[in-house]
Amino acid sequence: MNINALRNRPDIANDVKLSGLYVQFEQLLKELNAKQLTPIAIDSINKDVEEINASTYAGNELRKLVKQKQTAILKLVENEFKFAPKNYYRNLWMILGFTAFGLPIGMLFGLSMKNMGLMGIGLPIGMAIGAVVGTSMDKKTLNEGRQLDLEIKY
Fold first, then answer.
1. pTM summary value
2. Pairing state of beta strands 147-148 and 84-85?
3. Which long-range contacts (CB under 8 A, 24 or more apart) does 64-69 make?
4. pLDDT grade for 146, boundaries at 50, 70 and 90
Protein backbone atom coordinates (compact mmCIF):
# COMPACT_ATOMS: atom_id res chain seq x y z
CA MET A 1 0.00 0.00 0.00
CA ASN A 2 1.44 3.36 -1.05
CA ILE A 3 1.04 6.87 0.25
CA ASN A 4 -0.80 9.20 -2.12
CA ALA A 5 1.15 12.01 -3.77
CA LEU A 6 0.36 15.68 -3.47
CA ARG A 7 -1.45 17.33 -6.35
CA ASN A 8 0.74 19.67 -8.39
CA ARG A 9 -0.27 23.28 -7.73
CA PRO A 10 1.21 25.73 -10.24
CA ASP A 11 -0.51 28.64 -8.45
CA ILE A 12 1.85 28.43 -5.44
CA ALA A 13 5.01 29.11 -7.46
CA ASN A 14 4.86 32.83 -6.64
CA ASP A 15 4.76 32.25 -2.86
CA VAL A 16 8.30 31.26 -1.83
CA LYS A 17 7.40 30.16 1.71
CA LEU A 18 4.43 28.09 0.61
CA SER A 19 6.26 26.42 -2.27
CA GLY A 20 9.17 25.53 0.05
CA LEU A 21 6.78 24.07 2.61
CA TYR A 22 4.97 22.15 -0.14
CA VAL A 23 8.24 20.67 -1.45
CA GLN A 24 9.25 19.75 2.12
CA PHE A 25 5.91 17.98 2.61
CA GLU A 26 6.42 16.07 -0.67
CA GLN A 27 9.86 14.97 0.53
CA LEU A 28 8.35 13.79 3.81
CA LEU A 29 5.81 11.69 1.91
CA LYS A 30 8.57 10.17 -0.27
CA GLU A 31 10.61 9.29 2.83
CA LEU A 32 7.62 7.70 4.52
CA ASN A 33 6.76 5.77 1.36
CA ALA A 34 10.16 4.08 1.60
CA LYS A 35 9.52 2.99 5.20
CA GLN A 36 7.47 0.03 6.41
CA LEU A 37 4.26 1.52 7.79
CA THR A 38 1.07 -0.17 8.91
CA PRO A 39 -2.03 0.07 6.69
CA ILE A 40 -3.80 2.06 9.42
CA ALA A 41 -1.00 4.67 9.46
CA ILE A 42 -0.95 4.83 5.66
CA ASP A 43 -4.72 5.39 5.61
CA SER A 44 -4.37 8.21 8.13
CA ILE A 45 -1.59 9.84 6.09
CA ASN A 46 -3.59 9.42 2.88
CA LYS A 47 -6.59 11.16 4.48
CA ASP A 48 -4.39 14.12 5.35
CA VAL A 49 -2.92 14.23 1.83
CA GLU A 50 -6.37 14.01 0.25
CA GLU A 51 -7.58 16.85 2.45
CA ILE A 52 -4.73 19.02 1.15
CA ASN A 53 -5.36 17.92 -2.44
CA ALA A 54 -9.09 18.66 -2.17
CA SER A 55 -8.51 22.01 -0.50
CA THR A 56 -9.41 25.18 -2.36
CA TYR A 57 -7.31 27.28 0.00
CA ALA A 58 -4.53 29.49 -1.28
CA GLY A 59 -1.81 31.55 0.33
CA ASN A 60 -1.69 31.69 4.12
CA GLU A 61 -4.69 29.38 4.58
CA LEU A 62 -3.04 26.64 2.50
CA ARG A 63 0.28 27.16 4.30
CA LYS A 64 -1.46 26.76 7.65
CA LEU A 65 -3.24 23.59 6.47
CA VAL A 66 -0.02 22.03 5.13
CA LYS A 67 1.81 22.83 8.39
CA GLN A 68 -1.00 21.28 10.45
CA LYS A 69 -1.05 18.10 8.38
CA GLN A 70 2.74 17.83 8.33
CA THR A 71 2.88 18.18 12.11
CA ALA A 72 0.11 15.60 12.54
CA ILE A 73 1.90 13.11 10.27
CA LEU A 74 5.23 13.65 12.05
CA LYS A 75 3.58 13.08 15.44
CA LEU A 76 1.94 9.92 14.13
CA VAL A 77 5.14 8.35 12.80
CA GLU A 78 7.16 9.51 15.82
CA ASN A 79 4.72 8.04 18.31
CA GLU A 80 3.95 4.78 16.48
CA PHE A 81 7.22 3.96 14.70
CA LYS A 82 9.78 6.23 16.44
CA PHE A 83 10.77 7.78 13.09
CA ALA A 84 12.12 11.31 13.38
CA PRO A 85 13.54 13.84 10.89
CA LYS A 86 17.11 15.11 11.14
CA ASN A 87 17.80 17.29 14.19
CA TYR A 88 14.34 16.59 15.62
CA TYR A 89 15.59 15.73 19.09
CA ARG A 90 18.24 18.47 19.06
CA ASN A 91 15.60 21.12 18.42
CA LEU A 92 13.23 19.62 20.97
CA TRP A 93 15.84 19.23 23.70
CA MET A 94 17.36 22.64 23.10
CA ILE A 95 14.09 24.23 24.19
CA LEU A 96 13.67 21.75 27.04
CA GLY A 97 17.22 22.41 28.23
CA PHE A 98 16.61 26.14 28.03
CA THR A 99 13.60 25.91 30.32
CA ALA A 100 14.18 22.78 32.44
CA PHE A 101 17.90 23.26 33.10
CA GLY A 102 18.68 26.86 32.23
CA LEU A 103 16.14 28.59 34.42
CA PRO A 104 16.98 26.64 37.60
CA ILE A 105 20.72 27.05 37.00
CA GLY A 106 20.19 30.77 36.47
CA MET A 107 18.12 30.99 39.63
CA LEU A 108 20.93 29.29 41.56
CA PHE A 109 23.45 31.79 40.18
CA GLY A 110 21.17 34.69 40.99
CA LEU A 111 20.35 33.54 44.51
CA SER A 112 23.91 32.53 45.40
CA MET A 113 25.33 35.87 44.25
CA LYS A 114 22.32 37.80 45.62
CA ASN A 115 21.92 39.41 42.23
CA MET A 116 18.91 38.21 40.24
CA GLY A 117 20.34 39.96 37.20
CA LEU A 118 22.60 36.94 36.82
CA MET A 119 19.61 34.67 36.22
CA GLY A 120 20.21 34.94 32.48
CA ILE A 121 23.58 33.20 32.79
CA GLY A 122 21.87 29.83 33.19
CA LEU A 123 19.84 30.05 29.98
CA PRO A 124 22.67 29.43 27.48
CA ILE A 125 24.09 26.75 29.78
CA GLY A 126 20.74 24.95 29.78
CA MET A 127 20.41 25.38 26.03
CA ALA A 128 23.86 23.83 25.52
CA ILE A 129 22.95 20.90 27.79
CA GLY A 130 19.75 20.38 25.80
CA ALA A 131 21.60 20.55 22.48
CA VAL A 132 24.09 17.90 23.64
CA VAL A 133 21.33 15.57 24.87
CA GLY A 134 19.28 16.08 21.70
CA THR A 135 22.25 15.54 19.39
CA SER A 136 23.09 12.27 21.14
CA MET A 137 19.47 11.15 20.71
CA ASP A 138 19.62 12.10 17.01
CA LYS A 139 22.78 10.01 16.60
CA LYS A 140 21.08 7.08 18.30
CA THR A 141 18.09 7.45 15.97
CA LEU A 142 20.41 7.51 12.94
CA ASN A 143 22.31 4.41 14.10
CA GLU A 144 19.05 2.52 14.62
CA GLY A 145 17.84 3.45 11.11
CA ARG A 146 14.85 5.44 12.36
CA GLN A 147 15.93 8.84 11.03
CA LEU A 148 14.15 10.32 8.02
CA ASP A 149 16.47 11.85 5.43
CA LEU A 150 15.09 15.39 5.67
CA GLU A 151 15.15 18.28 8.09
CA ILE A 152 11.89 20.00 8.93
CA LYS A 153 12.10 23.78 8.65
CA TYR A 154 8.97 25.78 9.40
1. 0.86
2. parallel
3. 66/18, 66/21, 66/22, 66/25, 67/21, 67/154, 69/25
4. very high
